[in-house]
Every structure is written in C-alpha cells, then in structure tokens.
Specification:
Strand content: 25-35%
Radius of gyration: 28 Å
Structural class: alpha+beta
Shape: globular
Number of helices: 13
Length: 636
Amino acid sequence: MQSQPPQSASAPGPAPVVDVEQAEAALVEHYPRLVRLAYLVLPPSLGRNRRVLTAHALAQRSLPRGRKPGVAVAIPAQQGGGHRRDPGYAYVRLQVVRGALDAGLPLTWRSWPRRAQLPPLLPQVRGLRLFPRSGGADELALDQRLAKLSGAARAAYVLRGLESLDDAGVRMVLTAAGCDDPDDALAEADAVEARYALLASPEFDPCSLHARPTDLMRRRQHLKAAGVAALATLVCGALLGLPGDGWGPDGAAAPPYAQNPAAQAALDPGKLTVAATGAWRRSARTDFSVWPARGGLVDDKALLRRALAVWARPGETVQVSATPGTPSGAPPGPAQLLYAGEVDAARVVLLYDGLRIVRYAEPKEGTSGAALDFARVDGASGPEASALVVNRADGNVRYLTAPWVRSAAVRDLLKPAGQALALRRDADGVTEPFAGPAQSGRCTSWNALRMRDHSGAVRMVTDLGELTPARLTAGRPEAPREAAPADWTKSACSLASVRSHGVRSVNSWAYARQTLPETGAAAQWVCTRAETWRGAGSRSLAQFQTADGPTGAVAAKAEDSPACGPREPRVLAGVRWKSPGGNWYLLGAGSKDVTSLTASGGDQVQGNVLAVSTERTARARLTGTLADGTKVPTLR
C-alpha cells in the first residue's frame, strides 16, 4: 500500500450543465457505487434493513425532476478521471449525499419531515430483512467508529476514501449538500484512522445481500395474519378434497405451469435413480454418483413427490437458498436419491442431478415452513464428495458421510494439541450433532470434521454455512496436501471471511519465515486461498503470524487474483510492526522464488524477507523481483 499524493481543487470556471439523460446514464452505469456511498453515509441507527432500502431509494431519486434544459453542477478535484469527472455522475452523487445527510436529521414537531427522513415508498420488501454480507473484525471496527461520527463527518470520511476527493473537493460537495460547517466535519473525520480500502468490502455492499425472515412470532399475533391463515386453510382443505389431479400431494409447491413430458418425468418419484449399495467399491471414481440411497424414508413416495414438486415449483412460503453461482431451477430430468429420513425435527431429502446437491426439508408435522437449498458440486470427487450437511439446529451441525468413510471425529483447529472427539454415526452414516463454527462474536474455537476413509487416508473439512463443507489443505498451491490441525491453528478464524461464498476448498501455505528485529523471535507468513465451485470469486489472504500471537494479523487480501494459487504460486506482502522496545519496522516477505525486495523509500535487500526501520505513520510500497527480473507486486 502507498499513501495518496496531495490533491487540490479544480481551477474556477463555468460549472458544467447536466440534463436528465446525462444524469440517468451516470446513475445506470454507476448505480452500485452510488448505493454503497449512500449506505455508508446513512446513520447506522436506522438498522441494516432500512439502511439498505433507503440507500437504494436515495440513488433512485437522484435524477433531476422534470425535463428542464439542464442544471449546473460543480465538479470537485480528485485523483483519477473517468466517471468521477463526469458532470452527470457529480450531480447524482451530490443528490445522494444530500439525501443521506437529510435522513440522519432528527424528526421534530416544529417542521415537516423531509422526504429522506421517512421510510422509502420504493423499493419495498415485506416479510424479509435484507442486510449485506458479514465482513471481518476490521470492517466491524470501522463501522462502529463511523457510527459515532456525525452525518457530515461520516460523509467527509467516505468521500475521501470511496471517491478519492481531497479536502477542498469534500468541502465543495458538503457545502453544496447543505452542510453548515464542512471544516468541522473534516476535522471530526480526521479522528478515524484512514483505512479506506475497507470501504470496498462486501460488509458495505447493499447490492449483494442476505435475506432472513422478520419476527415470525410477532407476525403471528396480528389478527389479519390469523384471518388470512384461516382462509388459506379452508381453501386448501377444499382443494384437497377435489377429485382429479389436484396440487394437494405436492405440498408447498406452486400450481403446475406446464405438462411437459420431460418435466413430468423429473417429478415422478418412481423414476428417481438409485446407486447400488456397493457401487463405490467397483467404480473408477468416488463421487456422489456412487452414493447409495440411505435413510428410513427412501420408500416414502409421498415425501419424495413433495420434494420433487417443490424443487420444480417452490411456492411463496418455501425458503430457497443457493450458493453463489448455483442455478436454482427445476431438475433437467430424473435425479438421483441420496438420502430420505427424519433428522431431529424435520424430514430431509437429499438429491443429486450431476451438477447440484439439492436439500429439501419440511417439519415432521405438515409442510408449512419447507426449505429448499442448492449447492453446486460439479467435478466433486474423493474428499470433496465425502460429506454433506444434513441438518443445522441451535448452532449444531449433522453430516451425512460417504459410504467409504470408516470413522469421523471433531477437531478444534485452535487447539492442535487437543484430542479428536470421536463422532457416533447411525447405520445410514449420519453423525451425531456437534457445535459448528461460531456465526458471530469472538472466535474462541473452530471445529472441523476429520474423516478416515477405507484406505486409511485422513481428510478434514469445515462448515462454512453451505450444504457442502469446505476441504482444508496445506502446502504449496501447485501440490497441496491434506491439512493437519497445526496448519490452521492461527488461520482458522479467518475462514469466517469466506462463509456462504460457495467455497470448494481452502489452502493454507506458510510461504516464508522471518526472524524479528531486536527480539530474534521467529515469525511466519501464511497465505490462505479459498477456491470456489464456480471458479470465479477466489479469495487470498496474507497473514503475519508471531509465535506468541493467538491469531495472525491480516497483511493483505485479494479477490479474483491468481496470486497464491496454482496458476501463480507466488505471493508478496508487508506489514508495519512495533517491537517490544517501541520501535516501528516495515516487515515484508515473499515466496521463495522472490530473490530481492525493494521498499518505496529506497531500501533493498537480497532474499525474500525484509525488515527496515520506519515511522509509525509512514506508508510504503513493497516490490519483489524474481531471478529473471520479473517484478512481483504485493497482494491486493
């Protein structure tokens, strides 16, 4: 990372004129950025759901009203060019900032509320709470710091970091937005550490959202909901009593929309394919196609019919989820049955269509509250096809293990010296429940499932919130090995950053070791890389780990970068480190093929590790060089 050069305001001149078409083009092209800007400036006290909806509403209301010839807008100076020098973009950005500041004003009886202070009319979402993906500890800390700022100071910080405006440019935008004292806002924003790269995190992306139901108990208390439920019960009872091919046997599925022969075959439980019990012993590969059908309800045709019907036509009451990049459409033909049985308080069906694993679950009493989950598993074989999540409840998880798994145990990755806790499995291969990784709060443990197969090989996987657990490996990216708990002791908590990201496997690579200045203590540099089932969206994280630290410090991270992966098995990262004596050092390390390191201050060393004295507030950029002269940038 390097510090940004000083910026200055634009030379005075006539303000460009923006018409409706120009502003609309800027809004359409840069809508995600404008919504992120509004979300960051809005007060966190609104709550994440209303904050998301209000951010979208502010961006959608930012166009000029009517079809006037045009409005003049001043463009503040900033680094770069492109859309940020576009008058249309400058205009809609100003409207978004103005609306976000208005939304943070308190409501009083002395004046009419402004439009931004009221809940948005559009967009509207009912029955669901929307919120962005959870980030790491750094994003949470930054959000808490920004929440303590005033609205104008929060806008100043975001305009600096997200829009790369200098102080003169920030002052210009805040003044145009109606801020009374931009200088006070800039001074207040200076109190927050300038970690502007975190503003681009998924934690602050209101266009990539999770959905959860609202307070169901409160909704049930409303008389109107009770009346609607009673009416629906009467209608359903009448339809179930009708002769002919009604939709009653399909449970929570929507009414059929076509009588296509291929689609009808996919809905017939009698045409589900089933692998022979010992097929995996004779097969040339071990994947989901050789899993036998297991469970006490594999012959329950009514349950299987409901599962297939809901898969093809999920009704409005069905909770549907899919890992990123996984299609959630109807089956292309008869699927393979993997499991059907009762697990805890639900009836669960697991199906496989060659590309996806589909999990259908319904309560033991009735079909209200049915759930349908999709996970992509194309190309899964061996360790990646050794277990599936069959149920989660109260923070605990149960797995259905592959037929070639001989034993299963739980290992806490944060306690490598601890003993593995043996897991009991029933005759169908379903494990007893055990605590999964914590969804929030402090990371004090991280459980992984350890499996031993028929050949004696030991594999480890961990639950990242999806149907398929992520495989854990270690070593060089081009030739990883099965991981041991010691490989993940200081890196396990970082797995939370890739939860619900469609992760296929995560590799931990200790790519360099370094002796710390003054103390002589040993430290190591580790790069963890998460590969996804869809191919795109890989995430790499470089960590600096000391012997006395419980976890590693994140030095750099990147998404969709070949660094630290099999295509480009090299990495470079650096951190500022404070010695016990109070002195600050710039530490850096590259993989073994890096032959020299150069800091932006001119310091250069031969080898793949660097330690030079620096100032606390100094920012430096590291560059590595390979033996053939190729330059290697830091991970980002």
